Amino acid sequence: MYELDDSLKLFGGTANIDLTKEVCDYLGIIPGKMVNKAFSDGEIRVEIDENVRGRDTFILQSTCSPVNDNLMQLLIVTDALKRASARSITAVIPYYGYARQDRKVKPRVPISAKLVADLITVAGVDRVISIDLHAGQIQGYFNIPVDNLFAAPILLSYIRKHFEGNLSIISPDAGGVERARAFAKRLNASLAIIDKRREEPNVAMAMNIIGDIRGKTAIILDDMVDTGGTLVQAAEALIKNGAAQVYACCTHPVLSGDATKRIEGSPIETLLTTNTVPLNKKAAACSKMKVVSVAEILGEAIKRVYFSKSVSSLFV
What we know:
alpha/beta, 7-stranded mixed beta sheet, 14 strands, 30% helix
């Protein structure tokens, strides 16, 4: 791959400060200089502190908690770069908030994932890079290129190094079967599915298990963990049905509310996750958490976009 020069500028929002530094280290560049402050009433104030005229710029910012503040900061930084005559603006959004609201599940509800896509586009973003979008159709909500990367290679590498033998990959719901099947195939493991019913948002009930997990090491696979309710109920159901051990694996550790407390008190041995969302203080102190970094895959995607090279090989 070619050598980077100073015409590439990567600016990091406040959502992913450590991840921004890791990506810059991978690229061998210095993070772009930017002032992030707020007025006394909470209004976000941004100032780009270096020349970006004619430069290819990237903004790394997950729209995680506080979701609305981080989303607004992303939009304001985009506007600042556009008004500073940046040649191109790519939004690197490791975790895309509002992605769960991707369709109308009942009358008179918004499709918030589409609204956020419109906001990002209108603000002036030319391209989006994200990881494990909650729903693939979100790519179609944008009228600009979207690269949906996958954390699978990183997670699979860790599992291969630390697990062996009688593995079963568990999908916590019907929607995750395709993802779980892909993992099971690459690990030469069996596949099982948790049949659950969701009575209301953030409340889930694990029901039946489809597949044989007796005596096996079960690894529950999901794209995100929010309240932890689905994960914990699935783990308890697996143990009741004869699983020898239960582990969990996800890309986005949202971990809101009492999620960490639930996981600590659950049969889950370890929750393997990535740093698309920085762990909150409770989660960071939890001995069951294991974090692997997505800095390399993001850095490689940024480099390939910058040099107009194929990003397809990263979609595995």
